[in-house]
Design brief:
2 copies of one chain form a homodimer. Chain A is an alpha/beta fold. In chain A, helix 7 links the parallel strand 3 and strand 4. In chain A, the strands form 2 sheets. Chain A has a 6-stranded parallel β-sheet with strand order 2-1-3-4-5-11, with helices on both faces. In chain A, strands 7-6-8-9-10-12 form a 6-stranded mixed β-sheet, with helices on both faces. Chain A folds into 3 domains: 40 residues, no CATH class; 140 residues, Response regulator (Rossmann fold); 133 residues, 3-Layer(aba) Sandwich (Rossmann fold), CATH 3.40.50.2300. Chain A is built from 12 helices and 12 strands. The model of chain A has no long low-confidence stretch (mean pLDDT 91). Chain A is elongated, with a radius of gyration of 26 Å. Chains A and B meet through helix 4, helix 5, strand 2, helix 6 and helix 10 of A and helix 4, helix 5, strand 2, helix 6 and helix 10 of B. The first copy, chain A, binds a DNA duplex (30 and 30 nucleotides) through helix 2 and helix 4.
DNA sequence: CAGATGAGTGGAAACGTTTTCAGCCTTCCA
DNA sequence: TGGAAGGCTGAAAACGTTTCCACTCATCTG
């Protein structure tokens, strides 16, 4: 069932059918009605490949998102989608799994759909300038990485919270609450991911307050998973170093941290406080609720989309937007009376 | 940068370039090496639209998944993806948002990519036979609905747990633990979703044990959200009907239920037990851990993919696979000594 | 050595659209 | 009444591939 069949059925040329379908003004209403009726009747759906192939330019923005179950980025995505629609563009979403290469996916999408711009959401994103050169449209990254190969600041755009400062705020909140022995459960300390940035924020906060950094209080889990975070805490406990608070990389990891502490007889927050970064809706439903630094997910999505569209429409220059994370007070942090040492 | 440019650069015809790129045997190794080098150097990426347009058949299976942040279906998806790859097919994923029409999306995908089959994951799925007629390839549903318009059993395939029986098992587990006043927090009781099926299972369990169904113990939240579930519990408490256990529609809702109970001074499980259905990894990290009926997500994905591929390859007939949910004991249910009334 | 074989290559059609251009027929205006 | 203008339509080119067919050589085979 192609446009030709419809044309034949209607006794007109394919051009006319095409125009009718695409809402062009230069078709008589009578003709349009007739054609649309036939289209409806035959359940004809135009072939998108052919369309994309011939259309020279488009109003499409591609979004490549990594991972299927990331609660945080799905919030970002929703906001970005809304913004893209609002500015009169079409959004084309591609989701990729662990194995795939997001840049290649983006490049394919670019050619396939004649994209105007690309938005990368989530995932590690450590590509070199060389690798990025397959992308010929403006793009914005909203990802888990702080390191972009040999890309200079002026080569790409990004939107994120200031991870280091957020972590610092979190840890300072603990310090201000009287904690001094503060453990950290992070994915990695030098893996060029946001984990590293947040770890640096942790260190910065401690240093600023004259608290020595003790590597025995740091658990590197290697990944962002809950099971790993749980094991990280067990490792910490096994070391028998005293600590009264834990800084967790993310809300999900914080849940696992709290669970591990509880399972090993430490009450949260009475015996040990926990703070995290993310501010997922979920964090309001844990017991205790999470004290966490809320990443403005919606704002991130919106800003990322806006930045991208500015570059697309106005030829705006690459920029890096850093948003503020906001402390979302919860029940997992307890103020302690510093017992003089 | 098209295949023509590559051909020109190599001094050969487009046919040869095409063959080289696609690994056809009828190109001399020398030629292939030369062409591939140029391709690499120019970062040429074939245009997928053109490819799809001309290729008459494909090995592609389309997956249309509704919603971006569904932890359960992302597990199902992962397993399905694996199976599809393993059987030598390509998976093409389309994610859609609340507004979109999954059948239309599927139909477009079908024509665009010359699909061999379609898998629908998540979402309400109440289309009529008339609406489904745009789909011309085998398809399998793994969705939130128990009602498929006027579709007969033989018209489509589906994979799910036996929701009614799972709910019944859950509630019977509560009954066997000594509970008799059992509340339910469901999305709807007659909305033709799995919520209804689970509600029916709840009723069945009560009836089987001679416990009258009390509508004052049932909170209809209207949706699967956490905030709604929380409010549902508040509504239950406001009614001042006594209950010692709550059956929650899903793990996420159970979290909210537990939170609401706790916030209102009821300890879980000491004062009130909670049971749910889902068995998300998350449920092992809540406090207390969730007693829940585990839906075998991986198995569902795998079975759905397998069923679909059987239909595609062997022309197998539509089937309906019902898997068993397994009780995953947790800490949210407490055995009570029935105090004689 | 003649013919068959087969590997490697090029030409061209085909995929299903959109869009440009040209043409026809009305209608309108002077 | 002649011409311009404008609404509507059709023909054909173009988009970038893949693949069928035909062709050229070199290499066998008997």
């Amino acid at each position: 069932m192609t446009i030709k069949d419809i044309a034949r059925k209607c006794g007109v040329s394919v051009s006319t059918v095409s125009r009718a379908i695409n809402g062009r003004p230069d078709v008589s209403d009578e003709m349009r009605g007739k054609i649309l009726a036939v289209v409806e009747e035959c359940r004809y759906i135009p072939n998108n490949s052919a369309r994309d192939l011939v259309r020279s330019s488009s109003d499409a923005i591609g979004v490549v998102v990594r991972g299927t179950s990331n609660l945080f980025f799905s919030q970002v995505l929703r906001a970005a989608a809304q913004k893209i629609e609002a500015r009169g563009f079409r959004m084309i979403l591609r989701q990729i799994e662990s194995g795939a290469d997001e840049v290649k996916t983006g490049a394919i999408l670019e050619r396939e759909k004649k994209l105007q711009g690309l938005l990368f959401l989530g995932g590690r994103f450590d590509y070199t300038r060389q690798e990025m050169s397959v992308i010929n449209v403006p793009y914005v990254c909203c990802t888990y990485t702080n390191w972009f190969g040999d890309l200079g600041e002026e080569d790409y755009s990004s939107v994120s919270i200031d991870d280091q400062s957020a972590a610092r705020q979190a840890v300072e909140h603990l310090i201000c609450s009287g904690h001094r022995r503060i453990a950290a459960v992070v994915a990695g300390c030098s893996d060029r991911s946001i984990s590293e940035l947040r770890y640096r924020g942790y260190c910065a906060a401690l240093e600023a307050h004259g608290i020595p950094i003790d590597s025995r209080l740091v658990a590197e889990t290697g990944s962002f998973g809950m099971a790993e975070a749980y094991r990280g805490v067990e490792e910490l406990l096994r070391r028998e170093e005293e600590f009264t608070a834990v800084f967790a990389l993310s809300d999900m990891m914080a849940m696992a941290v709290i669970k591990a502490l509880t399972d090993h007889g430490r009450r949260v927050p009475q015996d040990c406080s926990v703070i995290a970064i993310d501010g997922l809706p979920l964090s309001n439903y844990t017991i205790p609720t999470l004290t966490t630094l809320e990443q403005p997910a919606a704002q991130m999505g919106e800003k990322a989309a806006a930045l991208l569209l500015d570059m697309v429409e106005g030829g705006g220059m690459p920029r890096h937007i850093r948003l503020e994370a906001r402390l979302q007070p919860g029940g997992s942090v307890r103020r302690v009376i510093k017992n003089r040492e």
